[in-house]
Design goal:
Elements lengths: L1 H14 L1 H4 L4 E5 L3 H13 L6 E5 L1 H9 L6 E3 L3 H9 L9 E6 L1 E6 L15 H5 L4 E4 L5 H13 L2 H4 L3 E4 L2 H9 L5 E5 H5 L4 E6 L8 E7 L7 H10 L5 H6 L3 E2 L2
Helix pairs in contact: 1-11, 4-5
Protein name: Molybdate ABC transporter substrate-binding protein
InterPro entries: ModA (IPR005950), ModA/WtpA (IPR050682)
Keywords: Metal-binding, Signal
Length: 254
């Protein structure tokens, strides 16, 4: 599939050089912020126009695309929100690919220092929170919150913890609540925790406690003929982007 995407991108670039100079607009999940800014700079260094980047919760971005927002690429933090757009015929189906993944971690403010925790079914998260709230994305629509809910259900603690959640509108907002000490614990992605100097990772949730965290990328239907968008998509899903994603802690999807 990747070879076909790259060949198609090259063909379009040769056939429509003027169109290729129009910057692509990328709607990307908030957890991709740092990696995509670095990749946007790398793309521009190769002689392309720097992409226009917009970051938010995958749910918010998907709904904006549904309402006609001018996105050329959609990079989601979970499969269901890409499914949402695909079911509405708003993406190019054969452009959908999930090249990277992530992990789910429990974090706390760096001060005071806390001991690591082996997260399992017997871990009492409410006791660890010491009466405070646990910050994560809103499970009703934010991918990280959905993964957190699945992990808490696996632990048998969802009913007890759900009323104590600080439900943020995206993973970076949840992280900020912990950095500021407004929540003693947070459930976020490993990559976001690694990007913060204000939180420490207490433990990683077992992979089997939630669905695999994968990031589907796709070209939107409105950009199906946009050579620059197709070329950028091939770059982001290809081997040249791998070192950057890995530098920011993302895993290659299996």
């Amino acid at each position: 599939m990747m070879r076909r995407l790259i060949l198609a991108a090259l063909a379009l670039l040769l056939a429509a050089p003027a169109l290729a100079q129009q910057p692509a607009t990328v709607f990307a999940a908030a957890s991709l912020t740092d990696a995509m800014r670095a990749l946007g700079q790398e793309w521009a260094s190769r002689g392309h126009p720097a992409p226009r980047l917009s970051f938010a919760a995958s749910s918010a971005l998907a709904r904006q695309i549904e309402q006609g927002a001018g996105a050329d690429l959609f990079l989601s933090a979970d499969e269901p929100w890409m499914d949402y757009l695909q079911s509405r015929e708003l993406i190019v189906n054969n452009s959908r690919i999930s090249p990277i993944g992530n992990a789910l971690v429990l974090v706390a403010p760096t001060t005071p220092t806390r001991a690591p925790v082996a997260l399992g079914r017997g871990t009492d998260l409410l006791a660890l929170a010491a009466g405070g709230r646990i910050a994560t994305g809103d499970p009703a629509h934010v991918p990280v919150g959905r993964y957190a809910e699945a992990a808490l259900r696996w632990m048998g603690q969802w009913e007890a913890i759900a009323p104590r959640l600080a439900r943020a509108d995206n993973v970076r907002s949840a992280l900020l609540l912990v950095e500021r000490g407004e929540a003693p614990l947070g459930i976020v992605y490993a990559t976001d925790a690694a990007a913060s100097r204000g939180v420490a990772v207490l433990g990683t949730f077992p992979a089997g406690s939630h669905a695999p965290i994968t990031y589907p990328f796709a070209i939107t239907r409105r950009a199906a003929g946009n050579a620059e968008a197709l070329a950028l998509h091939a770059f982001l899903a290809g081997p040249d982007a791998v070192p950057v994603f890995e530098r920011f802690g993302f895993r290659l999807a299996r």
